[in-house]
Amino acid sequence: MGAMLQDARVRFEECHTAWLNECEFAELARTLKALAQEQGVATDPIINELVHFGAEAAFALLTVEMRIVGDARAAKPTPIAQMKPAGPPLVH
C-alpha cells in the first residue's frame, strides 16, 4: 500500500512540475510577444524561434530584429515639418 502511495505522489510531483514548466513557457511567450509588439517587430518569427530552439535563440532573434527595425527607422529621412530647431533662431 505504501509503495502505491509513493508512486501516486511521484506521479503528482511529475505532473505538477510539467504544469509549472508549461506556465513558465506561456509566460515567456507572452513576454516575448509583448516586447516584440512594443518594438514594432513581427511576433510570429519570435514565437517560432522560442518553440523550436528555446528562449536564448528567441531573445537573440528579437535583438537582431530590433536592430533591423531601428536601423530602418534611423535611415528614414525625417520630414522638415517634424524637425525642431536646435536652439533659438539666429538673428543677424
Can you put this structure into words, describing what you see?
With about 90 residues, the chain is mostly helical. The chain has one domain. Helices cover about 75% and strands about 0% of the residues. The protein contains three helices and no strands. Helix 1 runs antiparallel to helix 2, helix 1 (about 1-40) runs parallel beside helix 3 (about 55-75) and helix 2 packs antiparallel against helix 3 (about 55-75).
Secondary structure layout plus pairing:
Blueprint lengths: L1 H38 L3 H11 L1 H21 L17
Helix pairs in contact: 1-2, 1-3, 2-3
Described by the principal axes of the CA atoms, the overall outline is rod-shaped
Give the domain tally.
Answer: 1
Largest sheet: none
Decide which structural class fits the backbone. Answer: mainly alpha
Helix content: over 70%
Helix tally equals 3
Low-confidence stretches: none
The number of strands is: 0
Query: What is the distance, rounded to the nearest whole angstrom, between the alpha carbons of the first and last residues?
Result: 99 Å
**Average pLDDT taken over every residue:** 82
Indicate the radius of gyration in whole angstroms. Answer: 25 Å
Task: Classify the beta-strand content into a percent band.
Answer: under 5%
Order of helices and strands: HHH
